[in-house]
Amino acid sequence: MKSNMTCEGCGGKLQTDDAEEIGYIPKTALDKHNLLCQRCFQLRHYNKNVPVSVESDAYLELVSTIRQTDSLVVHLIDIFDVEGTLLKGLPRIVGNNPILLVGNKLDLLPKSTNQRILTDWLFRKAKDAGIQVEDVFLISSKKSYHLEELAMEMEFRRKNKDIYVVGVTNVGKSTFINQFIKRSTGIKDAITTSYFPGTTLGFIKIPLNRHSALIDTPGIVNENQMAHYVSKQDLKVITPKKEIKPRNYQLNSGQTLFIGGLGRLDFIKGSKQTFVCYFANEVMIHRTKIANADDLYDRQVGDLLSPPDKETLSILPELVKHSHRLTHPYTDVVFPGLGWITVLDGNVTVDVYSPKGIAISIRQSFN
Ligand SMILES: Nc1nc2c(ncn2[C@@H]2O[C@H](COP(=O)(O)OP(=O)(O)OP(=O)(O)O)[C@@H](O)[C@H]2O)c(=O)[nH]1
Ligand SMILES: [Mg+2]
């Protein structure tokens, strides 16, 4: 077997020696039409995740070779979790190459989302993070929203060079590239995708012409992402699968909202008003009095307040509290990786709880 052969599904280097290691393929599968490693085969056919042991630093090192290339970079982020997926170190990784910032998973946001406000906010977020972007797009790889416009812009900007699709694990890079492969060849699901982070393990080059390629890359690990602190089962629950339905709660000061047992908002001061919750439809939201909240949490976390399940509870950092004074109407309190709560009238003080290491952020609502 040639030592430079890679799996067509994940980009991992193929080998026939060690079934526990990346790229393992049984000798009998080597003459198949598609070269797929055992892990990709199992993910595709049984939706079974075989965890692989590769240091996240190794991926970062590989992806950082992009800074030595002359190419166009598409930085894909998950617009449902901007804080967890915008790569603050992107310029170090891709050097001076031009960057298109692309917010994926638009299909999850309510139809009422103001895409202009969201786009402007993403421009500002990128600028604040020290990332100079040529343009910002909002797309859904799954539902093919706005892919045509983006494809045209990519073609225009790449000037016959390679395009690298770069981002944190699980933002949908491979799903995005699969859409391009489908458009040009009709082949579906060429690259392996899954809801587990860490699916793609090497560069996967899709030729655009004889001289250039569209290149899928392994996701960069962001340690402060909620996905790393919950069980596989809970990750399924907190990841929205379709458009989220806003849930309204009329709260008086002195009341609390629990987002399962993974987040909490105490309404400390301000006049009665509506708090609009944007979380996966399967996440339970529970209202109670602040006076009862600690006790309820101690008794019901993992039961009434779920997720977390047992496995998550064993790895989840403790919830820590931060106070926020929200002066403006239509302000979002963002629980990264979970969702957000829009405070409609403003002029309130809230205490917000999130797992240690996952910092709450505040922004103007785009609804
Ligand atoms: N709702 C929604 N889900 C999406 C979209 N694009 C991708 N996904 C889902 O997000 C999950 C991750 O997708 P992948 O394409 O494997 O993500 P990736 O960025 O390649 O992940 P790594 O290879 O681990 O870095 C899968 O469950 C996809 O179905 C989208 O536009 N909308
Ligand atoms: Mg991938």
Secondary-structure map:
Blueprint: H1 38-46, H2 56-63, E1 71-78, H3 82-85, H4 90-94, E2 99-104, H5 115-128, E3 135-138, H6 147-158, E4 162-166, H7 173-185, E5 204-207, E6 213-216, H8 232-238, E7 247-251, E8 255-259, E9 263-269, E10 273-279, E11 285-289, H9 290-300, H10 310-315, E12 319-326, E13 331-335, E14 339-343, E15 348-355, E16 361-364
Beta-strand content bin = 15-25%
Gyration radius from CA atoms, angstroms: 22 Å
Overall pLDDT confidence: 94
Catalogue the ligands: guanosine-5'-triphosphate, magnesium ion
Spell the H/E element sequence: HHEHHEHEHEHEEHEEEEEHHEEEEE
Strand order, largest beta sheet: 3-2-1-4-6-5
Q: What structural class do the secondary elements suggest?
A: alpha+beta
Q: Count helical runs.
A: 10
How would you sum up this structure in a few lines?
The protein has ten helices and 16 strands. The chain is α+β, with helices and mostly antiparallel strands.
Provide an overview of this structure.
The structure is a single chain. The chain has 367 residues and is of the alpha+beta class. The protein has helices at 38-46, 56-63, 82-85, 90-94, 115-128, 147-158, 173-185, 232-238, 290-300, 310-315; strands spanning 71-78, 99-104, 135-138, 162-166, 204-207, 213-216, 247-251, 255-259, 263-269, 273-279, 285-289, 319-326, 331-335, 339-343, 348-355, 361-364. The chain has a six-stranded mixed sheet with strand order 3-2-1-4-6-5, with helices on both faces. Strand 5 and strand 6 form a beta hairpin. The model has no long low-confidence stretch (mean pLDDT 94). Residues 104-105, 107-108, 140-142, 167, 169-175, 193-195, 197-200, 218-219 line the site of guanosine-5'-triphosphate (GTP). Residues 104-105, 107-108, 140-142, 167, 169-175, 193-195, 197-200, 218-219 line the site of guanosine-5'-triphosphate.
